[in-house]
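seq as requested:
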Amino acid sequence: MSEIDRRTKRSADPTEALQYLVETVADRSGARALVLVDDDGRIVAGMGMPDDVVGLARATREVAWRRASAFHVDLVTRGQDVTARTVTTRERILYFGALAERMTGLGDATRAVQRILAS
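struct tokens:
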């Protein structure tokens, strides 16, 4: 069983479940901020200080697709390290973005998002 499967907060509501997942992953990894955004850059779930979350949401898709310029990322994240990962589901593409020096757990989190949205 993965760490994500052992989370204590659960919900049958997908939106709430995604928020709980983001909070759990951020807490366990020590990320300063963590977001799950849709393909339009809208925040689906997020955790962190408001300015960090908004800046991270602006950079996540571009970082995930390796299209972001270092200048743009530094501008919206105030020079912090960004990790991003694409999450493909049956209906849409989402993106995890994290402000963290070393990010762990996004592989398990990606699979958890897919499970939550498949139900």
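The first helix runs from residue 14 to 29.
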